[in-house]
Amino acid sequence: MAPMAVSSSSLIIAVFICFSLAATSLSTSDDDDNDRQSYIIHMDKSAMPSSFPTPHDWYSSILSSISDHESGPIIHLYTYTHVMNGFSAVLSKAQLARLERTPAHIATFPESMGRRHTTHTPDFLGLNTRAGLWPAAKFGDDVIIGVLDTGIWPESESFGDTLMPPVPARWRGTCETGTEFNSSHCNRKLIGARKFSRGMEQQRIPINTTEDFDSPRDFLGHGTHTSSTAAGSRVDNVDYFGYAKGTASGIAPMARLAMYKVLFYDDYQDVEKSYDAAATDVLAGMDQAIEDGVDVMSLSLAFFETLPFYENPIAVGAFAAVKKGIFVACSAGNGGPHGYTMQNGAPWITAVGAGTVDRDLGALITLGENNSITVFGHSLYPENLFLDRVPLYFGRGNRSKETCGDVDLKEAAGKFVFCDHDENGEAGFGPSDEASAVAGVILNTNDGEFEEHVEDFKTPIVIVSTKDGDYIKSYLLNSTKPTVSVSFGSTELGIKPAPKVAYFSARGPDVRSPWILKPDIMAPGYDIIAAWAPNVPFAPIRGGEDYLKTDYAIISGTSMSCPHVAGIAALLKSTHRDWSPSMIRSAMMTTADILDNAEGTIIDMTTAVAGTPLDFGSGHVNPNRAMDPGLVYDVGVKDYMNYLCAMNYTKPQIAVITGESPDSISCEFATLDLNYPSFSVVMNNTNTSTVVFQRVVTNVASGGSVYRGDLEIPKGMRVVVEPATIRFDEKYSTAAFNVTVEVDLSGIGGVDYVGIKSDYIGNYGYLTWVELNGTHVVRSPIVSVAASPKT
Ligand SMILES: *[C@@H]1O[C@H](CO)[C@@H](O)[C@H](O)[C@H]1NC(C)=O
Ligand SMILES: *[C@@H]1O[C@H](CO)[C@@H](O)[C@H](O)[C@H]1NC(C)=O
Ligand SMILES: *[C@@H]1O[C@H](CO)[C@@H](O)[C@H](O)[C@H]1NC(C)=O
Ligand SMILES: *[C@@H]1O[C@H](CO)[C@@H](O)[C@H](O)[C@H]1NC(C)=O
Ligand SMILES: *[C@@H]1O[C@H](CO)[C@@H](O)[C@H](O)[C@H]1NC(C)=O
Ligand SMILES: *[C@@H]1O[C@H](CO)[C@@H](O)[C@H](O)[C@H]1NC(C)=O
Ligand SMILES: *[C@@H]1O[C@H](CO)[C@@H](O)[C@H](O)[C@H]1NC(C)=O
Ligand SMILES: *[C@@H]1O[C@H](CO)[C@@H](O)[C@H](O)[C@H]1NC(C)=O
Ligand SMILES: *[C@@H]1O[C@H](CO)[C@@H](O)[C@H](O)[C@H]1NC(C)=O
Ligand SMILES: CC(=O)N[C@H]1CO[C@H](CO)[C@@H](O)[C@@H]1O
């Protein structure tokens, strides 16, 4: 575990809202007889006639050659230079058919849509101003993080630039002018801000409604939160209505930020069909970020999980970024706790799951007049409220269980109500006004099963664990006149065990690509405080018509964990300029913690039992150890291509992802075995499988070293590592080894179900390279997993 030094004066700010962009392909025009729609067109750039000075001129010329009078004007949305070779445009079916007859045409994809997936965390991660990664990296000095999100609130103190040196000369980005935004909003911290909305505007979404700004300004708070989590400046005395008081700091407080706004407001009433982002815009934002010169990209959003990699704009854009040495962190998604819910699972992306931190926010409950016993419950009720000895109400007839929905609100008026969750683990009453006559609610929950969002309730509500709830119940049953005192706005630190896997965190494997274990890593993503857009009505409060606004908000999501890893990548990049994106990822993965702060395996919040690598990946990120991993597993662009070949993607499909010409692609070395720091054996309706993994590790520590391969292997798995000892003469020398994994589940009952809710069929263990004459420990999970969920 990282040292869990905890001091209340250095709370951290980091937010990742779990807005997973679940994209859906739009069917053509359901609203009128016009068959025009937005398309992404991939072209073979090697076929461009030399008479055209740029690809943009070539595409424009092709577009004018296919235009006609009947179909109306062609709208050329974007030309893409880095993320892919091609462009996006609004075309009719007839125009598209003509375009597809152009010999250089490779592929067409219709527009697809996505959704977005939320301080004390630097401390919890063991970042310290005097030793370790922070001072070594000069807090992220000279690294530029591009964030693709809902925009940014530039006036937030978290984007102050007092301590920042001049903007790096290599920066090519700019600050765009628009509604309530102009270049003077950028400074030495926020060095770029743009928005990409042409694709959204072709859908039903008008930008610059009363809800959104036609500019890089944040309409929601999400982008302000993720940006300040990754690289916000230090701000003292931050809190959220009394909760989580402390100093807010991004993970890389000296790194620069550039905002690429690609997420927009959608007021479409049908939640299932509403979305926040268009593929054409996300591609344009990533294209521009590469052009501008970012070093790290952070995307807390996703497209529909079943899109193949070649049709997924984030996977396509990230490939181009990684090719240029840019590290790309993405949220794993908030579709947990079931297995096979991973999003953003392409092997070149670093996919981040979410965990809790060692901090509880809520209310202190004291029972009875003189009862010295206090109980801490979870709450974010935005009022520094102290209720002194209020009558405590518990049900009418059945004194063993009373769901909140059964409470007689007339009888309970003015009292604090104690009630149980219902069978579905729900509160049983709405988050809104229904319970406004009561003084407050103590909700007895079934621990992890309870997924109600405490921040949605207008009534002062405290959620207690089953153990504490049972204690309160026994007090209630003993007393004739039970009373309770409740103090909101309380923060407790040093909570054990922590971290736990957050219930919503999406779980592996990735259904499109189960040969690579996903998620890669876990980072803080539960109850994270970070900067917010202060114009957004946010916190519900009793009696108020409106919601309270705030400069700093507490939210949860893999959206919040992703920018933590982006910030750590910035720190590592600052310390190791020569590391590739996959070396940075390897350093984080092989040094991650699999034990919590109580020295047990990290548990899953949903089940309260030990999680597995399919829940937390390689473990919880430990930045100080990642700085000095000893060995790294590097993966090159060609390796990813060989992987795509082995997935049986066609050459045009591989060309779409890699930006290569289809003719130049060779699948001679196709393999599903990437030089990855984890091992996944896919069981496809079999009890037995044997896989030989070939790996090469690079010594990134100074001088020579010797390592021994240690194995922790479960029943039903046999593993041989060859050679079992590897030697390095000097820094950057490499060593090859083979890992043979033989899985036979028949001896243990055919299938062994591991993981939450028995979704996973399989098993897991670890290979750890232990340095014999030094201190480095390089751990990799080995999992066997069913190719598809249990049916
Ligand atoms: C840009 O915005 C700032 C702050 O709102 C304002 O003071 C300034 O006049 C604006 N500049 C331009 C060129 O509009
Ligand atoms: C609580 O303590 C006060 C002062 O010690 C005492 O007067 C009172 O009777 C106690 N109440 C109960 C219910 O024990
Ligand atoms: C009271 O609730 C418990 C738990 O739901 C249930 O087992 C019991 O049968 C109920 N008793 C009555 C009298 O309704
Ligand atoms: C309630 O009474 C039972 C039985 O006397 C006792 O074991 C329990 O500790 C009491 N609970 C509280 C909260 O005082
Ligand atoms: C790819 O095709 C080959 C040959 O048909 C087949 O053996 C292999 O299982 C396929 N791979 C995947 C990942 O579907
Ligand atoms: C560890 O052993 C290797 C190989 O024998 C040697 O080159 C290296 O200097 C040793 N390192 C330390 C720290 O002793
Ligand atoms: C790993 O296995 C391959 C294929 O059998 C073999 O060619 C290679 O020499 C082995 N590598 C090591 C380090 O044993
Ligand atoms: C796997 O093993 C179990 C128990 O030995 C057996 O019942 C089952 O039929 C086997 N399944 C397959 C696909 O071989
Ligand atoms: C599993 O096997 C089925 C049937 O042969 C095949 O269609 C599917 O692609 C396989 N899945 C994987 C992940 O190899
Ligand atoms: C909410 C919003 O951004 N409204 C703007 C829409 O555009 C007009 C004209 O540019 C502005 O005046 C509004 O402020």
TrEMBL record:
Limits of the Inhibitor I9 domain: 38-112
Signal peptide: 1-22
PANTHER family membership: PROPROTEIN CONVERTASE SUBTILISIN/KEXIN
Sequence ranges assigned to domain Subtilisin-like protease fibronectin type-III in this UniProt record: 673-783
Name of the featured protein: Uncharacterized protein
Keywords carried by this UniProt record: Glycoprotein, Hydrolase, Protease, Secreted, Serine protease, Signal
Family label: Belongs to the peptidase S8 family.
SUPFAM superfamilies for the chain: Subtilisin-like
UniProt lineage: Eukaryota, Viridiplantae, Streptophyta, Embryophyta, Tracheophyta
Species per Swiss-Prot/TrEMBL record: Linum trigynum
Keyword Protease among UniProt keywords: yes
Cellular localization per UniProt: Secreted
Transmembrane feature ranges: none
Active site (record annotation): D149 (charge relay system), H222 (charge relay system), S559 (charge relay system)
Pfam family, one: Peptidase_S8
Occurrences of domain Peptidase S8/S53 (ranges): 140-599
Gene Ontology MF annotations: serine-type endopeptidase activity
BP-aspect Gene Ontology terms: proteolysis; response to symbiotic bacterium
One annotated Gene Ontology cellular component of this protein: extracellular region
